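Late entry, written up from scratch paper. The run itself happened at the end of the previous shift, but nothing got recorded in the book at the time, so transcribing now.
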Amino acid sequence: MYAIIEFGGKQFKVSEGEIFETFPVRSIKEKKFEISPISIYDGKNLLTDKEKLKDIKVICEIIEEKKGEKIYSFKKKAKTGYKRGIGYRDTLVRIKVNKISI
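Output as recorded:
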């Protein structure tokens, strides 16, 4: 069984016990939270009806907040001595899916 959820403007295919990384969402303040899925597949049927999906919740937990991989940019102009390096790291959140409650 897996569910497709929307979190932080992205869609993720998740199942119970799975861990995924994404950008943090400001509206979530707690460690444990619930998300309504976009669709759910139980092994036989794909469920996409919004009325039936209202009762189904995906219970998630924030494991940790960390920094992502460093992105480095470098500019240089010939014969003038101009050079500039910029480094940037995104803040990421690791989320574990505890349960898909039907």
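The chain has a mean pLDDT of 91.
(Scratch paper discarded after transcription.)
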